[in-house]
Design a protein that fits this description.
By secondary structure, this protein is an alpha/beta fold. 30% of the residues lie in helices and 21% in strands. It contains 12 helices and 11 strands. The chain has a 4-stranded parallel sheet with strand order 2-1-3-4, sandwiched between helices. A 4-stranded parallel sheet has the order 5-9-10-11, sandwiched between helices. Strands 6-7-8 form a 3-stranded antiparallel sheet. β9, α10 and β10 form a beta-alpha-beta unit. The longest helix is centred in the last third of the chain and has 12 residues. The protein is globular, with a radius of gyration of 21 Å.
C-alpha cells in the first residue's frame, strides 16, 4: 500500500497546537500490518509550518503520484476542509482518511468508503452519535449530536421519531452543570425532554437542531442507546429499525443487545459503550454498515 501523509493545520495554528499529541505513529503502525506492507511515498502540509522542519512535497504534486491512501493527521483535525481542498486540487477524496479513523479495529479503506457513501444518520440517546461522527470524520446527519435525553424519553421518541421531528422544539430553561462547568439549554420536543449540553445558548441549539433534522437520511438510520434494564432492551429490540444497538452490561441473545464490559470504565456504562471504537467485543464497522453484531476476531 502506497501512503501519503497529509499534515493538517488551520490558518491560526500555534506552535503548541502543532506540537500537540499526534495519532500519526499508532495510525501508521495500524496500517503497516504486516510490517513492511506500507510504503510512504510523500508528506505534504496544508499550511507551511517552519517549526516542524518536515521533508515535504508540494501538495499539488499529489496529482502525479501513485498512492492508495492519504493519511490525514494533525491536532484534532476536521476532515471537511481537507476534502474541500483536495477536491480543488483534483485529487481523489475517497482516499483521504483521518488518523483516528484507521485506529478503529477492523478498518479497511473499502469499508470506510462504503460508510462514507452510505450517508448514515445516527439517532442516539447520548453522546454516541457525536463520538461516531467525530472518530470517522463524517458529516453529522443527525439532530441528536451534542445532546442527550433520558432512557424513558428516548424510548418514547423512537417509535415515531420521524413524526416527532416534524414538530417544533420548545425552550424550557437553562441549567448549570458543575461537572462540566457550563450552563446549557433544555428543550421539549412533542413530550420528550432534550438536554443540549454542547451548546451555551438556546438560539444556537435551536438553529443546529433545525438544520440537522433536515439532513436525516431515513433510508439509512442507526439508533443507539444504553440501559441496565433487560425489559427496556426487549422493548428496544422490537422497534421498527433495520439497524439498532442497545449497549448493556449483561449477556444477551437479542440481536440488538450489545454486551459491553463496564469494569475497565469504573462501572460507567456510557463510557463502556463509547469504548467500542477502541476495540470492544464487536466489529464497529459491521454495526455501522449493516447493524450486525459481529464479534471481533
Amino acid at each position: 500500500m502506497n501512503v501519503v501523509i497529509w499534515v493538517q493545520y488551520d490558518t491560526v495554528a500555534t506552535q503548541d497546537k502543532a506540537k500537540g499529541q499526534s495519532l500519526l505513529k499508532p495510525a501508521f503502525a495500524a496500517l503497516d500490518k504486516p510490517k513492511g506492507s506500507v510504503n510512504l511515498v510523500g508528506v505534504v502540509e496544508s499550511v507551511a509550518m517552519p517549526i516542524n522542519q518536515l521533508n515535504t512535497i508540494d501538495k499539488r504534486e499529489l496529482a502525479n503520484i501513485n498512492y492508495d491512501l492519504v493519511l490525514v493527521t494533525g491536532h484534532d483535525v476536521d476532515l471537511a476542509p481537507v476534502l474541500a481542498e483536495a477536491k480543488e486540487l483534483g485529487l481523489d477524496t475517497d482516499k483521504f482518511v483521518l488518523d483516528r479513523t484507521v485506529l478503529i479495529p477492523g478498518f479497511t479503506l473499502e469499508k470506510y468508503k462504503a460508510l462514507r457513501q452510505s450517508d448514515l444518520s445516527i439517532l442516539s440517546m447520548g453522546w454516541w452519535a457525536g463520538i461516531a461522527y467525530h472518530k470517522l470524520g463524517l458529516p453529522e446527519l443527525s439532530p441528536t449530536v451534542g445532546m442527550f435525553t433520558s432512557e424513558e424519553h428516548f424510548m418514547n421518541f423512537l417509535p415515531e421519531a420521524r413524526w416527532h421531528m416534524k414538530k417544533d422544539l420548545h425552550f424550557e430553561r437553562t441549567e448549570y452543570n458543575a461537572d462540566l462547568g457550563i450552563s446549557y439549554p433544555i428543550f421539549w420536543l412533542d413530550g420528550t425532554q432534550w438536554f443540549m449540553n454542547s451548546f451555551t445558548n438556546d438560539a444556537d441549539a435551536l438553529e443546529t437542531w433545525n438544520a440537522r433534522k433536515e439532513l436525516v437520511n431515513w433510508s439509512n438510520v442507526l439508533v443507539t442507546m444504553h440501559t441496565t434494564s433487560p425489559a427496556v432492551l426487549e422493548r428496544f429490540n422490537c422497534l421498527p429499525y433495520a439497524k439498532k444497538a442497545c449497549f448493556v452490561p449483561f449477556e444477551t441473545e437479542l440481536e440488538s443487545g450489545f454486551y459491553v464490559d463496564t469494569k475497565p470504565y469504573g462501572g460507567n456504562l456510557l463510557q463502556a459503550a463509547e469504548g467500542i471504537f477502541a476495540g470492544a467485543a464487536y466489529d464497529v464497522w459491521d454495526l455501522l454498515l449493516y447493524g450486525k453484531k459481529t464479534p471481533l476476531k
